[in-house]
């Protein structure tokens, strides 16, 4: 029920308009500090325009996918993957006519196969595209389907970005109304690769109430704003511990951390859960 409420809150914020494109880098790095001649100013402006025109990759929609939702957190272990899975399931349950997909973008620590109770290797279509594994009506793709369960992925950044590109573009997603992407923790290569190459409808930031998690959650929200991805709101996970015997509630990690952060950032709190393991 909580997840369905979150999905309704998200649906209310999804923009059906044209995909958003990035607007290039700022001009500060290329500005002239000395009183140069008009000829020199013209040269600098032309050079700046050339660099900006080729600096950022052009966004390209994923074939068959209407809207892309990313779930992110600056800190690991805050229940982001659990939230992403529940939202994907809630979106499908809310309207059975909608196609929903789930992409595990955490190359180093994929968790979607376990959470969605899926094992095996993707089959290839006649077009040599990987076919997602399905359960509960959700089409799923993860690096966990391509490597052994106990095998570590020891890759540098360029290889990770290449893998993300393949998981996005070389998968036969079919026709999806929503593709939910479970992002890895942090604000690194994967986050930039996805947000710069794919028109993202919006991002949801997941955090727990304690100060350390909130510091990184704020960085995550600010990163998406810098790359012009709308932040739809925040989700507070592990809000309350409820004693299974007496039902007494204890705020182990604090009470209103995410709510206070949301006020600071001018965002909404989309929902909160009892604990990470209460789903």
Secondary structure topology:
Blueprint: H1 2-13, H2 38-55, E1 65-72, H3 80-94, E2 100-104, H4 112-115, E3 133-135, E4 138-142, H5 157-169, E5 176-182, H6 189-197, E6 202-207, H7 211-226, E7 231-236, E8 241-242, E9 249-250, H8 257-265, E10 269-272
Parallel strand pairs: 1-5, 1-6, 2-4, 2-5, 6-7, 7-10
Antiparallel strand pairs: 3-4, 8-9
Helix pairs in contact: 1-3, 5-6, 7-8
What does this structure look like?
This protein is of the alpha/beta class and 279 residues long. Helices cover 34% and strands 17% of the residues. It has eight helices and ten strands. It has helices spanning 2-13, 38-55, 80-94, 112-115, 157-169, 189-197, 211-226, 257-265, and strands spanning 65-72, 100-104, 133-135, 138-142, 176-182, 202-207, 231-236, 241-242, 249-250, 269-272. The strands form two sheets. The chain has an eight-stranded mixed beta sheet with strand order 3-4-2-5-1-6-7-10, sandwiched between helices. A two-stranded antiparallel ribbon has the order 8-9. Helix 5 runs parallel beside helix 6 (189-197). The termini are close together. Mean pLDDT is 83; it is low at 15-36.
């Amino acid at each position: 029920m909580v997840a369905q409420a979150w999905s309704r809150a998200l649906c209310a914020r999804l923009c059906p308009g044209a995909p958003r494109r990035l607007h290039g880098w700022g001009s500060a790095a290329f500005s002239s500090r000395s009183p140069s001649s008009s000829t020199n100013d013209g040269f600098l402006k032309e050079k700046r325009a050339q660099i900006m025109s080729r600096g950022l990759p052009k966004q390209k929609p994923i074939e068959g996918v209407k809207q892309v939702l990313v779930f992110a957190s600056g800190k690991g272990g805050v229940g982001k993957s659990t939230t992403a899975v529940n939202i994907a399931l809630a979106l499908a349950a809310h309207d059975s006519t909608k196609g929903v997909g789930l992409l595990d973008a955490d190359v180093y620590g994929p968790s979607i196969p376990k959470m969605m109770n899926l094992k095996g290797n993707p089959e290839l279509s006649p077009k040599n595209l990987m076919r997602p594994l399905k359960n509960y009506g959700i089409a799923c793709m993860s690096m966990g389907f391509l490597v052994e369960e106990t095998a570590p992925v020891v890759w540098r950044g360029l290889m990770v970005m290449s893998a993300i590109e393949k998981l996005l573009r070389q998968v036969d997603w079919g026709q999806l109304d929503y593709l939910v992407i479970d992002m890895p923790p942090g604000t690194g290569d994967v986050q930039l690769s996805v947000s710069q190459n794919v028109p993202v409808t919006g991002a949801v930031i997941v955090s727990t109430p304690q100060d350390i998690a909130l510091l990184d959650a704020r960085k995550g929200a600010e990163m998406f704003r810098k790359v012009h991805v709308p932040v739809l709101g925040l989700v507070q996970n592990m809000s309350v511990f409820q004693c299974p015997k007496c039902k007494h509630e204890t705020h182990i990690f604090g009470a209103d951390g995410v709510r206070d952060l949301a006020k600071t950032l001018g965002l909404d709190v989309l929902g909160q859960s009892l604990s990470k393991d209460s789903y």
